[in-house]
Write a structure and sequence with these properties.
Blueprint lengths: L6 E4 L1 H5 L9 H13 L8 E2 L12 H8 L10 E2 L3 H9 L4 E7 L2 H8 L3 H17 L3 E7 L12 H13 L4 E6 L6 H10 L7 E5 L6 H10 L4 E4 L19 H10 L8 H15 L6 H6 L3
Parallel strand pairs: 1-8, 2-3, 3-4, 4-5, 5-6, 6-7, 7-8
The structure holds 3-hydroxy-3-methylglutaryl-coenzyme A and magnesium ion (MG).
């Protein structure tokens, strides 16, 4: 069966913008986040406190959060943190939730975090424990769950091990990342079947490189998942992963879910208008099919 309601976790402002070639002004990011909240989103990942030399696009994280002010009641505004230094910067900015991230492959752990897989798990456990001691909520990502550009196929048992490590570290939501968009419905089921963590705690995070993100989402929902990550207008990519393109577009997701009678609390028309506006800011059309159908460029 399918869930009655899906939690949409909006990553456009973070995953979407981290890979942009042109520097997006802080004021535009402020307006983007405000528009996402106004559209009804209750989980908006706003930015990252990673090393600014690694991701210059999000170097304005503190200024952005300062301009946004505290998250409105009932709205989660997590930020991505890679280590203790990132957590300290997040705490100084007054955030209430952080997202930590690990990889299911050794190569990507080294390229994205400059650590071995086991070193990165030890580090994120420390960071998650410290965050929870400060009263913060913690989300956890596993990257490269369905394939890796350097290592090829990924063993679902390794994904399960990393997901369990995140769960043990106190992550209340564990997002399975298809960082380069190579998952297909069969590999999604294989990974979900291998997991040991409760499916209530699982989110899926598909990049749409090969056009499979919606099919993958549907099969994940049929297997008990009820939290889906997506990015306004299909923004996104990962600067440290070859061939990573945009995330599943929020509008494409909403179109499918709402027509299935699944509620999200997010307004499709407001999202289309937001992504059409964002496309003019970035100077290129959105890759979302639904944005282009409803608001032709
Ligand atoms: P490192 O170079 O090994 O850092 O990077 P270090 O610990 O050796 O520290 C070196 C210097 O950096 C020190 O300064 C630190 O203070 C500073 P110095 O003493 O030389 O003056 N530093 C920092 N400064 C600001 N904020 C920080 C920070 N940390 C250290 N947080 C590190 C290691 C983890 C920091 C680096 O590899 C990094 O920032 N990586 C993040 C890369 C990234 O953001 N990738 C994209 C996000 S993940 C993703 O997109 C996937 C996802 O969407 C899911 C999916 O699709 O799969 C989530
Ligand atoms: Mg991603």
């Amino acid at each position: 069966g399918l869930p009655d309601r899906v939690r949409v976790y909006e990553v456009g402002a973070r995953d979407g913008l981290q890979n942009e070639k042109t520097l997006v002004p802080t004021a535009v990011k402020v307006e983007l986040v405000q528009r996402l909240v106004a559209a009804g989103h209750t989980a908006v990942e706003t930015t990252s406190f990673v090393r600014p030399e690694w991701v210059p696009q999000l170097a304005d994280a503190a200024e952005l959060l300062d301009a946004l002010g505290p998250a409105p009641d009932g709205v989660r505004m997590p930020v991505l943190v890679p280590n203790r230094r990132g957590l300290d910067r997040a705490l100084a900015a007054g955030v209430r939730e952080v997202a930590v991230f690990a990889s299911a492959t050794e190569t990507f752990a080294r390229r994205n975090l400059n650590r071995s897989l086991d070193e990165s798990l030890a580090a994120l456990t420390e960071v998650a424990t410290a965050a929870r001691a400060e009263g913060l909520a913690v989300r956890g990502y596993v990257s490269m769950c369905f394939g890796d550009p350097w290592e090829g196929a990924v063993d679902p048992a390794v994904v399960a091990r990393v997901a369990t490590a995140l769960h043990d570290a106190g992550a209340s939501e564990i997002s399975l990342g298809d960082t380069i968009g190579v998952a297909t419905p069969g590999s999604v089921v294989a990974v979900l079947d291998a997991l040991v963590v409760p499916v209530d705690a699982v989110a899926v995070h598909f990049h749409d490189t090969y056009g499979q993100a919606l099919a993958n989402t549907l099969v994940a929902l049929q297997h008990g998942v009820s939290c889906v990550d997506s990015a306004a207008g299909g923004l996104g990519g990962c600067p440290y992963a070859e061939s990573a393109t945009g995330n599943l577009a929020t509008e494409d997701l909403l179109w499918q879910l709402h027509h299935l009678g699944i509620s999200t609390g997010v307004d499709l028309d407001a999202m289309v208008a937001t992504s059409a506006w964002m496309a003019t800011q970035l100077g290129r059309p959105s890759p979302s099919r639904v944005v282009n159908a409803l608001a032709p460029p």
